[in-house]
């Protein structure tokens, strides 16, 4: 997962090619000087034909070195041969131009410096020793021929010392440069790995995360933030977040602050604001961690469903079995009991047992909400059938429910789920209405390619303070209610791609369904 940055070093072949380019440039400069006359009318470089022969040989060596750059010779051997040839050529040039006094011996130093940078310590000393040997050999040859002048040996010794100093100094500098380069590469790899880790952490955040500078420009963001704001780019200005940035900037950079219900592109966001610590003098920044309130509500809903699922499993084993035993024992006692007081107590036991059993059935039904088998349903005959079943459970409601259904109403729904939803809404309307003929009405019509089924009662409706919690599980205003009826009805509706809501004023519940297509 983690990567180590590779140092961008100059390869040995590329380094030799660079030195070869220096040789070619030096030869061009020397050749140009040979064509220019000095103040005395003589050329700046002596040697005439001999110099041109030297130039031709040096040019040939440069060509050979260039051809050998990708050859089989090792880097050290190739460098050693090249530096030895350079030393010989520079001593020859020095001999053509007034010997050690001509100053051309100083041209040995750039080559030894390059060799020191490209080699290890002992090789740098070896190259300096070759140059020293060449200088003293030339001085000894001049002395043998009787051409040596006073102080030639001293000049040679000084130049040889300069060669050693140059080789050692450049070798130390090269070693320090390579160590610094390795350290920089190591630090670069660590920074790259840290950036990669930060990116993974940023993208794994469930919150939308954006990093803004003090002017409100976007510096960093994650995928969740892109879902909220769409097509984000670094450097982009987000006008929706400018009030938060301005408030943070004006409040003197608090360490941590929170914001509630900040509107951004149709979303209600909540979250916290964390300033980014920066050195003095640099532009400040701030990190925003945001969540959509709709997402939070959906997450809370999933948590409730998961809790209900666990509760369902426990209820099935822990409640139903002893409840069945209680009900059965109550039935047996009721057969033999003649005391009216005891009969009343047994009825209380049986009624509460049935109530608990009804709650268990409701919760178990909720656990089966994902088992949806949608089919086309003709609304009119289906409603007539459900009203008949409702009249059997509520005899005084027979003929009291008025139906106002549009023609050819067909919806796509799970038949069992729709029966449960409609039964729950009818029971709720009958319980809160006046229980007179026409006090409960069923209306159905088509609007905007959806079928809208309304269940209306003539009651006072749901209190405004209770409307927000109307579809919450276990919320009820009835002492005998379980608080699961409307919640389960909405869950079953959403499982079928429909929506159940309450439409004030009065008692009006709407079921908005998908039409069935032929």
Automatic annotation (TrEMBL):
Entries under Pfam families matching the protein: 6TM_PilS, HATPase_c, HisKA
UniProt xrefs under Gene3D superfamilies: 1.10.287.130, Histidine kinase-like ATPase, C-terminal domain (3.30.565.10), PAS domain (3.30.450.20)
Swiss-Prot/TrEMBL keywords: Kinase, Membrane, Phosphoprotein, Transferase, Transmembrane, Transmembrane helix
Enzyme Commission code: 2.7.13.3
Transmembrane segments: 51-68, 75-94, 100-118, 125-141
Top-level taxon of origin: Bacteria
Catalytic activity: ATP + protein L-histidine = ADP + protein N-phospho-L-histidine
Start and end residues of each Histidine kinase domain: 314-518
A GO MF term: kinase activity
InterPro entries in UniProt: HATPase_C_sf (IPR036890), HATPase_dom (IPR003594), His_kinase_dom (IPR005467), HisK_dim/P_dom (IPR003661), HisK_dim/P_sf (IPR036097), PAS (IPR000014), PAS-like_dom_sf (IPR035965), Sig_transdc_His_kin-like_C (IPR004358)
Class of enzymatic activity (EC top level): transferase
PANTHER family to which the protein is assigned, alphabetical: SENSOR HISTIDINE KINASE, SENSOR PROTEIN KINASE PILS
Protein known as: histidine kinase
Lineage: Bacteria, Pseudomonadati, Pseudomonadota, Betaproteobacteria, Neisseriales
